[in-house]
Automatic annotation (TrEMBL):
GO terms for cellular component: plasma membrane. It is found in: Membrane. Residues 195-237 are annotated as: Disordered. Pfam families: DUF7909 (PF25486), WSC (PF01822). The keyword Lyase does not apply. This is WSC-domain-containing protein. Residues 1-22 form the signal peptide. Keywords: Glycoprotein, Membrane, Signal, Transmembrane, Transmembrane helix.
Amino acid sequence: MQHSFTHSFISALLACAAVTTACVLPTDTLSNNITSGFGILIQNPEYPAIHDQYLMLEAAGGGDMHWFVGGQPPVGVSAFNLVLSEGVLEQGDIHAVIDGEYDPVANTTKIFMTERTDYLAYFTPVYACDPDNDEVQVILAFVGREDFGDGGLICVRPSYDNSYEFRYSPPGNTAVDPGQCIPVTMVVVPAAEQSTYPTSGASPSTTSSAAQSTASATTTTGTTFATSTTSSSSTATATLQHKPVVGPYLTSAIGTTPLPYTDETANGFAFVGCAPEASNADDGPARTLTGSLLADDAMTDGECVAFCASEGYTYAGTEYTRECWCGNSVAPGREPQTTLASLDNCNYPCGGNASQFCGGNSWLSLYQACTPGAACVNAVFT
Ligand SMILES: *[C@@H]1O[C@H](CO)[C@@H](O)[C@H](O)[C@H]1NC(C)=O
Ligand SMILES: *[C@@H]1O[C@H](CO)[C@@H](O)[C@H](O)[C@H]1NC(C)=O
Ligand SMILES: *[C@@H]1O[C@H](CO)[C@@H](O)[C@H](O)[C@H]1NC(C)=O
Protein backbone atom coordinates (compact mmCIF):
# COMPACT_ATOMS: atom_id res chain seq x y z
CA MET A 1 0.00 0.00 0.00
CA GLN A 2 2.74 2.34 0.97
CA HIS A 3 4.81 1.18 -1.95
CA SER A 4 2.05 1.85 -4.44
CA PHE A 5 1.29 5.16 -2.84
CA THR A 6 4.84 6.32 -3.31
CA HIS A 7 4.80 5.01 -6.82
CA SER A 8 1.59 6.81 -7.68
CA PHE A 9 2.96 9.93 -6.05
CA ILE A 10 5.92 9.90 -8.37
CA SER A 11 3.69 9.17 -11.34
CA ALA A 12 1.45 12.05 -10.39
CA LEU A 13 4.43 14.29 -9.93
CA LEU A 14 5.80 13.40 -13.31
CA ALA A 15 2.42 13.92 -14.89
CA CYS A 16 2.20 17.38 -13.30
CA ALA A 17 5.63 18.40 -14.46
CA ALA A 18 6.11 20.24 -17.70
CA VAL A 19 5.87 18.12 -20.82
CA THR A 20 9.55 18.76 -21.41
CA THR A 21 10.40 16.86 -18.24
CA ALA A 22 12.33 13.77 -19.02
CA CYS A 23 15.05 13.64 -16.40
CA VAL A 24 16.24 10.17 -15.52
CA LEU A 25 15.59 9.26 -11.94
CA PRO A 26 18.29 7.28 -10.13
CA THR A 27 17.18 3.84 -9.07
CA ASP A 28 18.73 3.68 -5.62
CA THR A 29 16.60 4.01 -2.53
CA LEU A 30 17.25 7.01 -0.33
CA SER A 31 17.63 6.60 3.39
CA ASN A 32 14.86 7.74 5.69
CA ASN A 33 17.51 9.47 7.81
CA ILE A 34 18.99 12.75 6.57
CA THR A 35 21.29 13.80 9.37
CA SER A 36 22.93 16.87 7.82
CA GLY A 37 20.86 20.04 7.98
CA PHE A 38 18.64 21.06 5.10
CA GLY A 39 15.96 23.55 4.18
CA ILE A 40 12.77 22.92 2.22
CA LEU A 41 11.98 24.61 -1.05
CA ILE A 42 8.29 24.66 -1.94
CA GLN A 43 7.24 24.02 -5.52
CA ASN A 44 4.00 24.34 -7.40
CA PRO A 45 4.62 26.08 -10.73
CA GLU A 46 0.92 26.87 -11.05
CA TYR A 47 1.12 29.15 -8.02
CA PRO A 48 3.88 31.75 -8.52
CA ALA A 49 3.18 33.18 -5.05
CA ILE A 50 4.60 30.04 -3.47
CA HIS A 51 6.66 28.38 -6.19
CA ASP A 52 10.38 28.26 -5.41
CA GLN A 53 9.88 29.89 -2.01
CA TYR A 54 11.36 28.38 1.12
CA LEU A 55 9.33 26.82 3.88
CA MET A 56 9.34 29.41 6.67
CA LEU A 57 9.03 28.75 10.38
CA GLU A 58 7.13 31.22 12.55
CA ALA A 59 7.39 31.00 16.35
CA ALA A 60 3.92 30.29 17.73
CA GLY A 61 4.45 30.10 21.49
CA GLY A 62 5.54 27.24 23.69
CA GLY A 63 8.43 26.47 21.34
CA ASP A 64 6.05 25.56 18.53
CA MET A 65 6.89 26.57 14.98
CA HIS A 66 4.13 27.06 12.44
CA TRP A 67 4.79 26.52 8.74
CA PHE A 68 4.37 29.28 6.19
CA VAL A 69 5.45 30.03 2.66
CA GLY A 70 5.48 33.38 0.90
CA GLY A 71 3.88 36.55 2.22
CA GLN A 72 4.36 40.30 1.89
CA PRO A 73 6.29 40.81 4.08
CA PRO A 74 7.46 37.20 4.34
CA VAL A 75 6.00 35.37 7.34
CA GLY A 76 8.54 33.48 9.44
CA VAL A 77 12.15 32.70 8.67
CA SER A 78 13.69 29.99 6.56
CA ALA A 79 15.58 27.20 8.33
CA PHE A 80 18.44 25.07 7.04
CA ASN A 81 18.91 22.98 10.16
CA LEU A 82 16.08 20.55 9.54
CA VAL A 83 16.88 16.84 9.68
CA LEU A 84 14.89 13.74 8.84
CA SER A 85 14.96 11.00 11.46
CA GLU A 86 13.27 7.80 10.36
CA GLY A 87 10.87 9.80 8.25
CA VAL A 88 10.13 12.42 10.90
CA LEU A 89 11.09 16.02 10.20
CA GLU A 90 12.94 17.51 13.15
CA GLN A 91 14.58 20.77 14.17
CA GLY A 92 16.31 20.43 17.52
CA ASP A 93 13.71 19.34 20.06
CA ILE A 94 10.68 19.92 17.83
CA HIS A 95 9.20 17.64 15.19
CA ALA A 96 6.51 17.83 12.53
CA VAL A 97 3.04 16.79 13.67
CA ILE A 98 -0.47 16.96 12.24
CA ASP A 99 -3.22 18.07 14.56
CA GLY A 100 -5.44 21.02 15.43
CA GLU A 101 -7.24 23.82 13.61
CA TYR A 102 -9.39 21.26 11.82
CA ASP A 103 -11.18 22.84 8.86
CA PRO A 104 -14.55 21.09 8.48
CA VAL A 105 -15.14 22.64 5.04
CA ALA A 106 -11.98 21.50 3.29
CA ASN A 107 -11.50 18.59 5.72
CA THR A 108 -7.88 19.52 6.37
CA THR A 109 -5.76 19.73 9.51
CA LYS A 110 -2.74 21.78 10.49
CA ILE A 111 0.82 20.50 10.13
CA PHE A 112 3.41 22.27 12.29
CA MET A 113 6.35 21.57 14.60
CA THR A 114 6.24 21.08 18.34
CA GLU A 115 8.16 19.25 21.04
CA ARG A 116 4.93 17.85 22.43
CA THR A 117 3.75 14.35 21.68
CA ASP A 118 1.21 14.42 18.90
CA TYR A 119 0.43 12.63 15.66
CA LEU A 120 3.64 12.55 13.67
CA ALA A 121 3.85 13.40 9.98
CA TYR A 122 5.97 10.88 8.05
CA PHE A 123 7.93 11.67 4.92
CA THR A 124 10.30 9.75 2.73
CA PRO A 125 12.96 11.18 0.42
CA VAL A 126 12.56 10.28 -3.23
CA TYR A 127 14.05 11.51 -6.47
CA ALA A 128 11.96 13.73 -8.71
CA CYS A 129 12.46 16.00 -11.71
CA ASP A 130 12.76 19.73 -11.04
CA PRO A 131 9.88 21.35 -12.97
CA ASP A 132 12.04 24.45 -13.55
CA ASN A 133 15.09 22.95 -15.17
CA ASP A 134 14.44 19.23 -15.45
CA GLU A 135 17.30 18.30 -13.17
CA VAL A 136 17.05 15.55 -10.62
CA GLN A 137 16.15 16.76 -7.18
CA VAL A 138 15.33 15.06 -3.90
CA ILE A 139 11.92 15.75 -2.49
CA LEU A 140 10.22 14.74 0.73
CA ALA A 141 7.24 12.69 -0.37
CA PHE A 142 4.50 12.68 2.22
CA VAL A 143 3.86 9.18 3.52
CA GLY A 144 1.10 9.61 6.04
CA ARG A 145 -0.10 10.71 9.42
CA GLU A 146 0.70 8.56 12.43
CA ASP A 147 -2.86 7.72 13.41
CA PHE A 148 -4.32 7.54 9.90
CA GLY A 149 -1.62 5.54 8.22
CA ASP A 150 -0.44 5.97 4.66
CA GLY A 151 -1.85 8.43 2.19
CA GLY A 152 -3.11 11.97 2.06
CA LEU A 153 -1.13 14.99 1.02
CA ILE A 154 0.40 18.20 2.27
CA CYS A 155 -1.08 21.38 0.85
CA VAL A 156 -1.24 25.10 1.65
CA ARG A 157 -4.04 27.62 1.99
CA PRO A 158 -4.04 31.42 2.07
CA SER A 159 -3.17 32.97 5.42
CA TYR A 160 -2.35 36.46 6.63
CA ASP A 161 -0.06 39.00 4.89
CA ASN A 162 -0.52 37.10 1.61
CA SER A 163 1.32 34.13 3.04
CA TYR A 164 0.18 30.51 2.89
CA GLU A 165 0.00 28.06 5.78
CA PHE A 166 0.43 24.29 5.64
CA ARG A 167 -2.32 21.72 5.88
CA TYR A 168 -2.80 17.97 5.76
CA SER A 169 -5.54 16.48 3.61
CA PRO A 170 -6.40 12.90 4.58
CA PRO A 171 -6.59 10.03 2.10
CA GLY A 172 -9.93 9.87 0.32
CA ASN A 173 -10.78 13.47 1.17
CA THR A 174 -13.76 14.36 -1.00
CA ALA A 175 -14.42 17.75 0.53
CA VAL A 176 -13.42 19.62 -2.58
CA ASP A 177 -12.10 23.09 -1.89
CA PRO A 178 -9.05 23.48 -4.11
CA GLY A 179 -8.33 27.06 -3.09
CA GLN A 180 -8.02 25.89 0.50
CA CYS A 181 -5.70 22.99 -0.26
CA ILE A 182 -3.05 23.74 -2.88
CA PRO A 183 -0.73 20.73 -3.23
CA VAL A 184 2.96 21.44 -2.79
CA THR A 185 6.19 19.60 -3.48
CA MET A 186 8.80 19.83 -0.72
CA VAL A 187 12.34 19.87 -2.08
CA VAL A 188 15.29 19.00 0.16
CA VAL A 189 17.95 21.71 -0.12
CA PRO A 190 21.13 20.88 1.81
CA ALA A 191 22.35 23.80 3.92
CA ALA A 192 25.54 24.01 1.90
CA GLU A 193 23.57 24.40 -1.34
CA GLN A 194 21.07 27.04 -0.29
CA SER A 195 22.82 29.76 -2.31
CA THR A 196 22.23 27.80 -5.50
CA TYR A 197 18.50 27.39 -4.89
CA PRO A 198 15.99 28.17 -6.11
CA THR A 199 17.01 27.57 -9.64
CA SER A 200 15.57 30.38 -11.71
CA GLY A 201 13.30 29.23 -14.45
CA ALA A 202 13.95 26.59 -17.02
CA SER A 203 17.50 25.72 -17.89
CA PRO A 204 18.73 26.78 -21.36
CA SER A 205 18.33 23.23 -22.54
CA THR A 206 15.08 21.79 -21.31
CA THR A 207 15.85 18.61 -23.18
CA SER A 208 18.70 17.76 -20.86
CA SER A 209 20.34 14.50 -21.70
CA ALA A 210 20.07 11.45 -19.56
CA ALA A 211 23.80 11.59 -19.03
CA GLN A 212 23.63 15.10 -17.57
CA SER A 213 20.72 14.23 -15.33
CA THR A 214 22.38 11.11 -14.08
CA ALA A 215 25.61 12.96 -13.38
CA SER A 216 23.76 15.58 -11.43
CA ALA A 217 21.93 12.95 -9.45
CA THR A 218 25.09 11.09 -8.66
CA THR A 219 26.67 14.23 -7.32
CA THR A 220 23.69 14.95 -5.15
CA THR A 221 23.62 11.44 -3.85
CA GLY A 222 27.31 11.26 -3.19
CA THR A 223 27.65 14.52 -1.34
CA THR A 224 24.54 14.67 0.69
CA PHE A 225 22.27 11.72 0.98
CA ALA A 226 23.02 8.36 2.42
CA THR A 227 21.53 5.66 0.27
CA SER A 228 20.32 2.32 1.34
CA THR A 229 22.32 -0.64 0.17
CA THR A 230 19.49 -3.04 0.68
CA SER A 231 17.27 -2.07 -2.21
CA SER A 232 17.55 -1.15 -5.83
CA SER A 233 13.89 -0.38 -6.23
CA SER A 234 13.15 2.64 -8.33
CA THR A 235 10.41 3.63 -5.92
CA ALA A 236 11.72 4.48 -2.52
CA THR A 237 9.75 3.11 0.36
CA ALA A 238 9.58 4.42 3.85
CA THR A 239 10.00 2.17 6.82
CA LEU A 240 7.33 3.57 9.04
CA GLN A 241 7.98 2.90 12.67
CA HIS A 242 4.78 3.97 14.23
CA LYS A 243 5.35 5.37 17.66
CA PRO A 244 2.82 4.96 20.46
CA VAL A 245 -0.05 7.35 20.14
CA VAL A 246 -0.47 9.30 23.34
CA GLY A 247 -1.28 12.69 21.89
CA PRO A 248 -4.68 14.34 21.81
CA TYR A 249 -7.13 12.62 19.58
CA LEU A 250 -8.71 14.81 16.96
CA THR A 251 -12.44 14.38 16.88
CA SER A 252 -15.08 16.42 15.22
CA ALA A 253 -17.08 18.20 17.87
CA ILE A 254 -19.87 19.03 15.49
CA GLY A 255 -22.99 17.02 16.03
CA THR A 256 -21.92 15.43 19.27
CA THR A 257 -24.51 15.42 22.00
CA PRO A 258 -24.27 17.05 24.42
CA LEU A 259 -22.27 20.01 23.12
CA PRO A 260 -18.52 19.80 23.68
CA TYR A 261 -18.14 21.83 26.81
CA THR A 262 -18.48 21.21 30.49
CA ASP A 263 -21.38 22.67 32.40
CA GLU A 264 -19.75 24.73 35.14
CA THR A 265 -22.76 26.90 35.86
CA ALA A 266 -23.16 25.30 39.28
CA ASN A 267 -19.69 26.69 39.99
CA GLY A 268 -20.65 30.17 38.80
CA PHE A 269 -19.06 30.05 35.33
CA ALA A 270 -20.84 29.81 31.97
CA PHE A 271 -19.27 28.47 28.79
CA VAL A 272 -19.00 31.25 26.20
CA GLY A 273 -17.28 29.45 23.32
CA CYS A 274 -14.00 28.55 21.67
CA ALA A 275 -11.63 31.54 21.51
CA PRO A 276 -8.50 31.84 19.35
CA GLU A 277 -5.02 32.39 20.68
CA ALA A 278 -2.57 34.63 18.84
CA SER A 279 -1.56 32.15 16.19
CA ASN A 280 -5.19 31.78 15.15
CA ALA A 281 -5.82 35.53 15.15
CA ASP A 282 -4.09 38.20 13.11
CA ASP A 283 -3.64 40.91 15.67
CA GLY A 284 -0.28 40.43 17.31
CA PRO A 285 1.38 37.99 19.67
CA ALA A 286 -0.44 38.75 22.94
CA ARG A 287 -2.26 36.05 24.88
CA THR A 288 -6.05 36.05 24.74
CA LEU A 289 -6.22 35.82 28.54
CA THR A 290 -3.34 37.64 30.19
CA GLY A 291 -3.70 36.59 33.83
CA SER A 292 -2.43 33.52 35.69
CA LEU A 293 -1.47 30.24 34.05
CA LEU A 294 -1.81 26.79 35.57
CA ALA A 295 -0.39 23.81 33.72
CA ASP A 296 -1.39 20.33 34.82
CA ASP A 297 -1.33 17.03 32.95
CA ALA A 298 -4.51 16.16 34.86
CA MET A 299 -6.33 19.36 33.87
CA THR A 300 -10.13 19.49 33.76
CA ASP A 301 -12.47 22.38 33.00
CA GLY A 302 -13.61 22.30 36.62
CA GLU A 303 -10.05 22.56 37.91
CA CYS A 304 -9.41 25.54 35.65
CA VAL A 305 -12.59 27.36 36.63
CA ALA A 306 -11.84 26.76 40.31
CA PHE A 307 -8.26 27.96 39.90
CA CYS A 308 -9.14 31.18 38.09
CA ALA A 309 -11.97 31.88 40.53
CA SER A 310 -9.61 31.39 43.46
CA GLU A 311 -7.26 33.93 41.88
CA GLY A 312 -10.10 36.40 41.51
CA TYR A 313 -10.39 36.25 37.72
CA THR A 314 -13.61 36.45 35.73
CA TYR A 315 -12.47 34.38 32.72
CA ALA A 316 -11.05 30.86 32.65
CA GLY A 317 -9.89 29.04 29.53
CA THR A 318 -8.50 25.55 29.02
CA GLU A 319 -6.10 24.85 26.14
CA TYR A 320 -4.13 21.99 24.64
CA THR A 321 -5.45 19.36 27.09
CA ARG A 322 -3.44 20.67 30.05
CA GLU A 323 -3.23 24.46 30.22
CA CYS A 324 -5.48 26.80 32.19
CA TRP A 325 -5.35 30.52 31.43
CA CYS A 326 -7.11 33.22 33.48
CA GLY A 327 -7.99 36.84 32.78
CA ASN A 328 -10.41 39.64 33.44
CA SER A 329 -11.05 40.39 29.78
CA VAL A 330 -10.75 38.75 26.39
CA ALA A 331 -8.38 40.37 23.92
CA PRO A 332 -10.53 42.56 21.63
CA GLY A 333 -11.47 40.77 18.44
CA ARG A 334 -10.86 37.35 19.94
CA GLU A 335 -14.29 36.87 21.45
CA PRO A 336 -15.58 33.41 20.58
CA GLN A 337 -18.25 32.90 17.96
CA THR A 338 -21.54 31.18 18.70
CA THR A 339 -21.67 28.94 15.65
CA LEU A 340 -21.57 25.19 16.07
CA ALA A 341 -18.68 25.09 13.64
CA SER A 342 -16.62 27.40 15.85
CA LEU A 343 -16.61 24.76 18.57
CA ASP A 344 -14.78 22.35 16.35
CA ASN A 345 -11.45 23.96 17.16
CA CYS A 346 -11.81 23.16 20.85
CA ASN A 347 -11.74 19.40 20.47
CA TYR A 348 -8.85 18.22 22.62
CA PRO A 349 -9.84 16.00 25.54
CA CYS A 350 -8.81 17.21 28.97
CA GLY A 351 -5.74 15.51 30.36
CA GLY A 352 -7.59 14.82 33.61
CA ASN A 353 -10.91 13.67 32.11
CA ALA A 354 -11.17 12.52 28.53
CA SER A 355 -14.93 13.07 28.62
CA GLN A 356 -14.36 16.81 28.72
CA PHE A 357 -12.81 19.15 26.18
CA CYS A 358 -9.87 21.37 27.11
CA GLY A 359 -9.46 23.73 24.18
CA GLY A 360 -7.35 22.89 21.17
CA ASN A 361 -4.03 23.75 19.63
CA SER A 362 -3.98 27.50 20.32
CA TRP A 363 -7.69 27.54 21.04
CA LEU A 364 -9.31 28.16 24.43
CA SER A 365 -12.44 26.54 25.81
CA LEU A 366 -13.60 29.76 27.41
CA TYR A 367 -15.68 30.15 30.56
CA GLN A 368 -16.87 33.43 32.09
CA ALA A 369 -17.93 34.15 35.66
CA CYS A 370 -21.66 34.78 35.90
CA THR A 371 -22.93 38.01 37.39
CA PRO A 372 -23.89 37.34 41.00
CA GLY A 373 -27.66 37.23 41.36
CA ALA A 374 -28.25 36.88 37.61
CA ALA A 375 -29.06 33.68 35.75
CA CYS A 376 -25.98 31.62 34.89
CA VAL A 377 -26.47 30.06 31.46
CA ASN A 378 -24.10 28.69 28.85
CA ALA A 379 -23.99 30.35 25.45
CA VAL A 380 -26.30 28.96 22.76
CA PHE A 381 -24.64 27.66 19.59
CA THR A 382 -26.46 27.44 16.30
C1 LIG B 1 18.19 6.06 11.30
O1 LIG B 1 18.51 6.69 12.52
C2 LIG B 1 18.08 5.98 13.66
C3 LIG B 1 18.44 6.81 14.87
O2 LIG B 1 18.14 8.14 14.68
C4 LIG B 1 18.73 4.60 13.70
O3 LIG B 1 18.23 3.89 14.79
C5 LIG B 1 18.42 3.87 12.43
O4 LIG B 1 19.11 2.65 12.42
C6 LIG B 1 18.81 4.68 11.23
N1 LIG B 1 18.38 3.98 10.04
C7 LIG B 1 19.15 3.90 8.96
C8 LIG B 1 18.57 3.13 7.81
O5 LIG B 1 20.24 4.42 8.90
C1 LIG C 1 -12.52 13.85 5.99
O1 LIG C 1 -11.35 13.29 6.51
C2 LIG C 1 -11.55 12.09 7.22
C3 LIG C 1 -10.24 11.71 7.80
O2 LIG C 1 -9.75 12.75 8.59
C4 LIG C 1 -12.10 11.02 6.31
O3 LIG C 1 -12.32 9.84 7.04
C5 LIG C 1 -13.39 11.53 5.70
O4 LIG C 1 -13.84 10.60 4.75
C6 LIG C 1 -13.19 12.85 5.05
N1 LIG C 1 -14.45 13.39 4.60
C7 LIG C 1 -14.65 13.71 3.36
C8 LIG C 1 -16.00 14.30 3.06
O5 LIG C 1 -13.83 13.56 2.50
C1 LIG D 1 -15.55 13.53 33.58
O1 LIG D 1 -16.30 14.47 32.88
C2 LIG D 1 -17.65 14.09 32.65
C3 LIG D 1 -18.28 15.16 31.76
O2 LIG D 1 -18.15 16.42 32.35
C4 LIG D 1 -18.35 13.92 33.99
O3 LIG D 1 -19.69 13.50 33.75
C5 LIG D 1 -17.61 12.89 34.82
O4 LIG D 1 -18.17 12.83 36.09
C6 LIG D 1 -16.14 13.27 34.95
N1 LIG D 1 -15.41 12.21 35.59
C7 LIG D 1 -14.83 12.38 36.77
C8 LIG D 1 -14.09 11.18 37.30
O5 LIG D 1 -14.85 13.41 37.39
